[in-house]
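Researcher: Let's do a round of design. I'm pasting the structure tokens now; please hold your answer until I've finished.
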């Protein structure tokens, strides 16, 4: 029974670890004539491949929210009884960008521009991150990236809980310790009474401000740094990591953590 409960708990934790992303599209649907908010409008985000990249429904005040797993360029398609279906012009959402839009729908044929971008909000660039190549690697898009603004959306979380929200990562529990790992390599076998790399443990290399950190059977991920000290995080599966952070034992992935610095 104990083994069944442990297996069920592990499946629950893996299912709960959903990717955290900073590409956000917020907006409001309004009547093209009156300017009043239109609730219960079904919105679909259609990508360049004509596939749906996300969907939402406007609330009582006409507002909606869409979040994407990476930079996208989409058109918004609307459906609501009593209003004409609308397909907006293409709308790009860059990495770590929040775009605010107003979508106008019409109950009668009108020659209008259905989309108006009202704001674009991007987190401020940090000099320390720029000097260490963070933004260049983010543009290349080979890893998963978290910024301070993303981490602050997860209050009361430790570092392991923050990391499990990134693409393809989960937590392995060993007593009171938490070890982060890439799910594609399977959970690690942590031998906690052995110093040095754990036996048969496929855990990623971890760097703090460019320095290799001790991450083994006696030092779990939460011993490295507190989330409130973190400016940004990069995670890479094997083969995608920057060459300066790879090595003979990087086959289980790489995690780069950058702390806050005075600008």
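Researcher: That's everything. Go ahead.
Model: Designed sequence:
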């Amino acid at each position: 029974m104990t083994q069944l409960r442990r297996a069920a708990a592990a499946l629950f934790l893996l299912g709960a670890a959903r990717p955290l992303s900073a590409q956000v599209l917020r907006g409001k649907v309004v009547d093209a004539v009156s300017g009043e908010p239109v609730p219960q409008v079904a919105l679909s985000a259609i990508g360049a491949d004509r596939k749906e990249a996300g969907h939402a429904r406007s609330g009582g005040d006409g507002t909606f929210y869409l979040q994407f797993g990476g930079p996208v360029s989409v058109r918004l398609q609307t459906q609501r009884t009593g209003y004409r279906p609308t397909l907006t012009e293409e709308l790009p959402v860059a990495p770590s960008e929040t775009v605010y839009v107003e979508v106008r729908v019409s109950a009668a044929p009108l020659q209008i521009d259905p989309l108006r971008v009202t704001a674009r909000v991007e987190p401020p660039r940090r000099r320390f991150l720029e000097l260490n190549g963070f933004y260049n690697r983010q543009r290349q898009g080979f890893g998963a990236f978290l910024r301070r603004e993303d981490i602050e959306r997860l209050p009361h979380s430790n570092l392991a809980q923050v990391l499990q929200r990134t693409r393809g990562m989960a937590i392995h529990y060993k007593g009171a310790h938490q070890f982060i790992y890439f799910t594609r390599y399977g959970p690690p076998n942590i031998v906690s009474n052995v110093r040095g790399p754990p036996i048969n443990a496929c855990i990623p290399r971890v760097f703090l401000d460019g320095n290799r950190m001790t991450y083994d059977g006696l030092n779990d991920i939460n011993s490295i740094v507190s989330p409130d000290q973190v400016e940004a995080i990069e995670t890479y599966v094997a083969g995608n990591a920057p060459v300066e952070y790879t090595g003979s034992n990087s086959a289980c992935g790489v995690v780069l953590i950058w702390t806050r610095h005075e600008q």
